[in-house]
Amino acid sequence: xxxxxxxxxxxxxxxxxxxxxxxxxxxxxxxxxxxxxxxxxxxxxxxxxxxxxxxxxxxxxxxxxxxxxxxxxxxxxxxxxxxxxxxxxxxxxxxxxxxxxxxxxxxxxxxxxxxxxxxxxxxxxxxxxxxxxxxxxxxxxxxxxxxxxxxxxxxxxxxxxxxxxxxxxxxxxxxxx
Length: 177
Fold this sequence. Notes:
By secondary structure, the chain is mainly α.
């Protein structure tokens, strides 16, 4: 096994996810909700991939399994279901919106769906009615802000497990106790 490769995949995946999240926030702030959704969804896939790579690095999973998982979009989202669970549970379901300490909103994000990602990326056609649906008609502000919240929580949880409390533990073992 090439341990350094999987540690590098872990670090690179988390860095890319953070950059994708930043871009998703910019797009959301400029009312490009469908595009923000796609980038945030992709950030979740990157986080999932990084966690799987960490599991290979720590010996929890096998390199051959990672190679199969690497390009499987639905598997990556299924592998990160913990992020949605955390984002809808106390205390992470509450998001501070400021400026006062009590200015919080309860987030109840929907589960990230591959079908919603596809709808956010491509136009769709109902050939029986002749209707065309654009991504901006299918994905709204709540959808974009919900998935961005899930990514925020996922990255926060990784940070908590890997460093905040001195744990320095990477991979899903830190989440799946």
